[in-house]
């Protein structure tokens, strides 16, 4: 029996849920399930008696796993835990999930007690908890001493107290911080309750979609803040359910607007609308990740093809990479191969011109580098800048080269984020390529080097198993 295209995260949840049920503990957050549903494998055979729709949880899982030994299960659990740790805990500071992430490594060690990666991850998580708890407590104490705090500072104070409780629920001092902030929290909750109610009440049946969206978002912001400092708030939870239903219609309309902008080749406008869509999605606990990725793919795929027609191949590569991060399709990968082929032709043509041409002056070299930067060929441009600075004597050219060097360094974070997205998609070969670009430009980027080493290691593991990244 074989089932193709199954979700790796579902397999992982199946394993973890089995252990959690055996210890009478609750199942893991469905929000995480949904966020990672794009990672797939054909090595695992899983039978799930469950539907994972919307933002609901699932239970009663029945599964059948073939061709995966205990060491394999342990490795997959560890790698999944690492990705959840990086995204949920480190990136989003969603400390409510920290204990659940810990269980990945605990269960991994039950399958393989000698799994050093799981041991190290468990240690890293504990160190992170301890370090962040100390930092948050120190920030709380400093802010609590401040007189005449603004509302924003009061929110930060209450948020810090709640985060400390999530980081270490059994820590008495952390619980006391929440008690210290109780009066401030009560006052904030009152304000958020009134504001959300006023925003919802202001919505009329005949209002435009834009006005409704503005008012619902205002309500959501207050609801979100209330739940951030008081997760079980009696007023915010039912309001959130009501607003979520209405926002589904509004987001559908915004998605149509994005699609129209793409058709009209207003790519920057579409990107702006997607940015707004993404912000609303975050307020809705990322329940619309799948639709967001669909829109991102549609935008960046079409944008890449537009840039190819303009012979702007490096910029097209950047856009098709974003499309592949959203959804790795054969069509997108084929476009990327086309871009790489065109880039090679351009590089050969330039090399031939240099070979047959005269010596390039400083001004001409700077102009050539500027063209490379404008077209997105940052690695090549950076290498040329380094070589040119070694022999350039003109002060104006040196200044311009330094400016271009700074501009390229500003793109390093973008390359890093893109590489990290590929890494989380388990496309380790592409992650290696992009992390390499980062460290070529910034040799001191330790996190990029660390992820580069991890990506190389995982790519070797995948190749040893006869799989493709």
Plain-language structure description:
The structure is a single chain. Among the domains are: 186-287, no CATH class; 377-469, Serine Threonine Protein Phosphatase 5, Tetratricopeptide repeat, CATH 1.25.40. Helices cover 75% and strands 1% of the residues. The chain is built from 19 helices and 2 strands. It has helices spanning 8-22, 30-35, 70-91, 98-111, 116-144, 151-167, 172-180, 182-201, 209-229, 236-263, 267-283, 289-309, 313-326, 330-356, 362-374, 378-391, 395-424, 428-441, 446-464, and strands at residues 6-7, 40-41. It is globular.
Mean pLDDT: 80
The biggest sheet amounts to: 2 strands, antiparallel
Q: What distance lies between the first and last C-alpha atoms, to the nearest angstrom?
A: 24 Å
Give me the number of helical elements: 19
Q: Specify the overall morphology.
A: globular
Give me the strand/helix succession.
EHHEHHHHHHHHHHHHHHHHH
**Order of strands in the sheet with most strands:** 1-2
Percent of residues in beta strands: under 5%
Total count of strands: 2
Unreliable stretches covering 5 or more consecutive residues:
1-8, 23-66
Rg over alpha carbons = 26 Å
Computed structural class = mainly alpha
**Helical proportion?**
over 70%
List keywords for this structure.
469 residues; mainly alpha; Serine Threonine Protein Phosphatase 5, Tetratricopeptide repeat; 19 helices; 75% helix; globular
Write the layout of secondary structure elements.
Blueprint: E1 6-7, H1 8-22, H2 30-35, E2 40-41, H3 70-91, H4 98-111, H5 116-144, H6 151-167, H7 172-180, H8 182-201, H9 209-229, H10 236-263, H11 267-283, H12 289-309, H13 313-326, H14 330-356, H15 362-374, H16 378-391, H17 395-424, H18 428-441, H19 446-464
Antiparallel strand pairs: 1-2
